Amino acid sequence: KFTVGIKTGYCLQNMILYARINGLGFDSSYRNKNENRAPVTFLVTVDQYKRMLPGPVFVSGDVKRDTLSGFLQEVKQLVEEMATRIVEDPSIIDSAHHANEVAMLTEATIIVQGSDGWQPLFFMIDKCLPEVGAILLVWPKMTICLCQFHVIQAILRWQTDSGTSEVKPKLSRPAKYLILWAFRQLQRARNEEAWKREVELFRQRLRKIVSKTNAYHIIRDYFEKNWFCGEWRDLWADIGLPPGHNRDNISTNNFTERAFKLFDEIFLENRANKSAYRLVLIIANEWFEYFRHWQPDHKKRPGAAYHQMILDGHRLWNSGYAIQDAGHDDQGQRVFKVLAEM
């Protein structure tokens, strides 16, 4: 029953500076972290450039509602205590945040003077009921968002999911696309009145997309049971988002997924870690320090720029002027030669 929470002053200050404005990501990873498959739970946010920054970490073999709520309650208390200390003595602000001292003091003051203490803008999660319950135990009125990517993934995989013995209708790719489009329109419902109107439109569209009556009823019942129910509806529709936000702004849990990908690739070197104690030492001594000492001060390039860069790279690779196929080496591995002059 190994259970530990890990934090530093720096990561608590990340929570103060960005959570109220940019929200939080909350997720657990089981794979290759320790010998007991005890999941690692990350609490993360993003900075003004939309780059992921770490918050406190929880390692436990028990990630049920009550243990997760205990972790979140402890984090809330620690953040509020840190905010009080900053208001009383701004010199304790971590050197990594010196460029944002004014904003840090402002956010800390909001926490100290607010009647409800630390209030993140939202929590972005995958479809995990214990996480929902844990968050609401600590913040009963918190906005919780389901990751759009995982919503779409779940809908697409439902047809091939082997978890039930139910006979599921086969859908063509165009039919799947149209169902997702109709579901996306339904997500735009912003209040109860709009929901009643949009859900009826969704049913009408679904009936046109799926011509067979039996198939229509099966698919409709799937959505009614898994997505329109009280536990989940307000977590994926615009009806559950803060004022001024919609699903185009708050969309996916990618920044939390990015944290786990970075942790596995850089800190675990894409190897399965076997020791829980080594895991804790890596998080405490290396994970937080990596971000403390690497603080980009510029915006990320637009997605279109990255896309064009990839296209240019493929064009250069295939041109024959930069890379040449040099055959195979003694061990049968394919070798490419990078030309010195172009």
UniProtKB/TrEMBL annotation:
It comes from the Eukaryota. This is MULE transposase domain-containing protein.
